[in-house]
Amino acid sequence: MDLNFKSNSKYLAEVAIIASIYVILTISLGALSFGINVPFLPIPIQLRISEALLVLVLFRKSAPAGLVLGCFIANFWSPFMMPDMIFGTLGSALAVYGIYRLKNINIFITLTPGVFFNALLVALELKIFFKIPFFWSGVAVAIGQTLVIYVLGIPLYYALKRIGFKNDYENV
C-alpha cells in the first residue's frame, strides 16, 4: 500500500466499515452468535452469521483487518469475554490468512480455514477455561461455522461477483 493520505484513509475507512458490520451482526443476533442449544449435541452450536463476511477476504485488501478487528470488538459481548477475545480473534486471524492464501482455489476449499481454525481454537478455549470436552466443542463450532460459511457465505460470494463488487486482486 502506498503512503499517501487518500489511499490510507480509504483503507482505514473500509476496515472500520467491515469491522462495524461484523460487530453489529454479531451483537444484534446475540444468542445465535454465542451459542444455541440443539437436542443432538451436548453443547450449544454457535451460528455467528457475521462469519459469512469471510468471503470479503476474496475481494478487499481491507477485509482481513476489518474482520479480525470486528471479531475482537464483538467478543466484548461474549459470555466468555476475555478468552473469546483471545482465542476467537486468533481463530479469525488464522482463518482470514488461510482464506487469503487459498484465494485462487475452488471456493469450497478456499473457505475451509474459516471452519477449521475457529473449530480448533474455540474448542481449545472451551477445554482450557471451561473443561468442556474438546471433541464435542470442536464438532459444535465446526457445524455452526460450516452452516454459516457455506450456506450464507458462498451465496454472498456469488452475489458480490454477480453485481460486480470491486475486487482489489483483479488486474494486479
Molecular structure report:
- The chain is mostly helical and 172 residues long.
- The protein has one domain: Arp2/3 complex 21 kDa subunit ARPC3 (Orthogonal Bundle), CATH 1.10.1760.
- Helices cover 66% and strands 0% of the residues.
- It contains 7 helices and no strands.
- Helix 3 packs antiparallel against helix 4 and helix 6 packs antiparallel against helix 7.
- It is globular and about 50 Å long.
- The relative contact order is 0.15.
Helix content: 55-70%
Distance between the termini: 12 Å
State the shape.
globular
Q: Mind telling me the C-alpha Rg?
A: 16 Å
Total beta-strand segments: 0
Q: Please tally the helical runs, counting DSSP H or I stretches of 4 or more residues.
A: 7
The number of domains is 1
Annotated CATH architecture: Orthogonal Bundle
Beta-strand portion reads under 5%
Mean pLDDT level: 92
Give me the CATH fold name: Arp2/3 complex 21 kDa subunit ARPC3
Q: Would you state the CATH class?
A: Mainly Alpha
Uncertain segments are none
What does the largest sheet look like? none
Q: Name the structural class.
A: mainly alpha
Q: What is the ordering of alpha helices and beta strands?
A: HHHHHHH
